[in-house]
Amino acid sequence: MNSRIQLSEPSQRPPRAPSQRTKQVDDPEYTQGLFDSAIRLSRDDFINEVFAPHYEGGEHVTIVGPTGCGKTTLCFEMIDSIATPELPAIICVKKPKDKVIEEWLKLTGFKKTEVWPPITKRNWNPRNKRVAVGQKQRGWVVWPKQSLKDIEVDQEKLSKDFKKVLNDCYRHGDRIVFIDDLVGFAQEYNLSKVMTTIYMEGRAMGCGLFGAIQRPYHAPVIMYGAAKHVVLFKDPDQRSVDRFKEIGGIDPEIVEEEVFKLKAHEALYIGRNMAPDGVSPAIAIIGAD
Question: Full-prediction pTM beyond 0.70?
Answer without folding.
Answer: yes
